[in-house]
Amino acid sequence: xxxxxxxxxxxxxxxKGSVLSYSQVALRAGKPGGAxxxxxxxxxxxxxxxxxxxxxxxxxxxxxxxxxAPLLVREGVPLRGRKVLRAINSRIERLELMATASIxxxxxxxxxxxxxxxxxxxxxxxxxxxxxxxxVTSLGxxx
Length: 143
What we know:
mainly alpha
């Protein structure tokens, strides 16, 4: 229930005409890698602008696209078919996208391996060299 409240707060804070991915909402709500939990929370919640949350690849889920597309178009979000046409404007958003992609990769990789008895493993953040350089550069510019 606590996570649902955090998701509601994040989704209500999305500006009109903007969108976030399920993974970005999960990250901002304090549960990195919890995109599916965001979907479940949005199903339970009411009275929030759920249509501002899309898939990480920029597409609308086929199950709700017929309802979601007109609401986004009315707010000024450009669409082509089920694809949201948007540019990543801020450095913070770029960092979030890189972090959510890396965390998702680590979570999938962790889930595919059986746990060892008696050991706790921490998976490091995995980024390519160019992504790591961009992250370090961006962090220096943000501070």
